[in-house]
Design brief:
Number of strands: 11
CATH architecture of the largest domain: 3-Layer(aba) Sandwich
Radius of gyration: 20 Å
Largest sheet: 5 strands, parallel
Distance between the termini: 62 Å
CATH topology of the largest domain: Rossmann fold
Order of helices and strands: HEHEHEHEHEHHEEEEHHHEE
Structural class: alpha/beta
Number of helices: 10
Strand order of the largest sheet: 2-1-3-4-5
CATH class of the largest domain: Alpha Beta
Helix content: 40-55%
Bound molecules: calcium ion
Shape: elongated
C-alpha cells in the first residue's frame, strides 16, 4: 500500500515541493515513531505543498526545535526518549515556541487524555486511527488561525503590492520575481512601515531561530530584494538606518 502511494504521489510531490520552495510554504515538523504513519503523513503533507521535517524520537524533536522553528508541529503522544506530552509542555514554557501550533496524535481516545493534552497546550488533538483528509483539514485550519494575516490580505504602498495569499509581488503593473526569503523580508518590513528592525530581529522573525546565521546574511538578502524591486529609475522602498537596521520607507508611495 505504501509503495503504491509512493508511486501515485511521486509526481505530485515533486511539483508541490518546487512550489513550496518557491512560495516559502509552511514548514511542518512531524514527530512520530511509527515509520509507516510518519511516511503517510509526510507524503500527504508534501503533496499539499508543505515542507516536511520528520523525527522519530522525542529527544530528537527537542533538538530540532532548538535549531529551527517550524510553522506547525504534528506530535505523537507516545514517543521514545521524551513523551509528546512533555515536549508540548516544554514548548509552551519557551518563548520561541510558546504560540507554535501543535496537533497531538494519540492511540488513546479517552476523554481524560484529550483534556490532559489540551490542558498542556496542544491546539488540537487527533485520535488514531484518523482519516488523512481530516488531519489535513485540521492542519490548514490551524495554520489559518495561527497566521490570519497569511490567509488574506494585500499589503500595498505606492505602486508596490504584496499579495500574501498568492505569494506575489507586483510593482508598477509588473510581476516582481524574488526568492522566498526576500518575500518574507519584504512582508515583514512592509507590515510595519517606518519601523526599524535590527538585523538580529530580522534573522529571528524571517529566518526563524537563527543564532548561527551571520548577520551579514540579512544585508545580502536586502541587497537581492532591492535589486528585484527597483530598477535604476525607481524609488527604493527600503531604508537603511545606519547602525540600526532596515525599515520599509513610510513615505514610499507619496503619502506623508
Ligand atoms: Ca508512538
Amino acid at each position: 500500500m505504501m509503495k503504491e502511494l509512493q508511486e501515485v504521489t511521486e509526481n505530485r510531490i515533486s511539483t508541490a515541493r518546487r512550489a513550496a520552495v518557491s512560495q516559502g510554504a509552511a514548514r511542518i515538523l512531524v514527530v512520530e515513531d511509527e515509520a509507516a504513519l510518519s511516511m503517510l503523513l509526510s507524503y500527504n503533507l508534501e503533496a499539499e505543498g508543505f515542507t516536511v521535517d520528520k523525527v522519530e524520537r522525542g529527544d530528537e524533536a527537542e533538538i530540532r526545535l532548538s535549531e529551527t522553528i517550524p510553522d506547525l508541529v504534528i506530535l505523537d503522544w507516545m514517543l521514545p526518549g521524551v513523551s509528546g506530552l512533555e515536549i508540548c509542555r516544554r514548548m509552551r514554557a519557551r518563548e520561541t515556541t510558546r504560540s507554535l501550533p501543535v496537533i497531538m496524535l494519540t492511540a488513546r481516545g479517552e476523554e481524560s487524555e484529550r483534556v490532559r493534552g489540551l490542558a498542556i497546550g496542544a491546539d488540537d488533538y487527533v485520535v488514531k486511527p484518523f482519516s488523512v483528509p481530516e488531519l489535513m483539514a485540521r492542519v490548514h485550519a490551524l495554520l489559518r488561525r495561527a497566521r490570519p494575516d497569511r490567509a488574506s490580505g494585500v499589503l500595498s504602498a505606492g505602486d508596490l503590492a504584496l499579495d500574501r495569499q498568492n505569494w506575489r509581488v507586483r510593482r508598477g503593473g509588473r510581476d516582481v520575481q524574488m526568492g522566498p526569503t526576500e518575500f518574507r523580508l519584504l512582508e515583514h518590513l512592509m507590515g510595519k512601515p517606518g519601523r526599524v528592525f535590527s538585523r538580529a530581529q530580522l534573522l529571528d522573525s524571517v529566518w526563524g531561530l537563527s543564532a548561527e546565521i551571520d548577520e551579514r546574511t540579512v544585508d545580502v538578502h536586502i541587497g537581492r530584494l532591492r535589486k528585484a524591486l527597483s530598477s535604476a529609475s525607481e524609488k527604493d522602498p527600503i531604508r537603511t538606518v545606519r547602525g540600526a537596521g532596515y525599515a520599509f520607507d513610510e513615505t514610499f508611495g507619496g503619502v506623508g
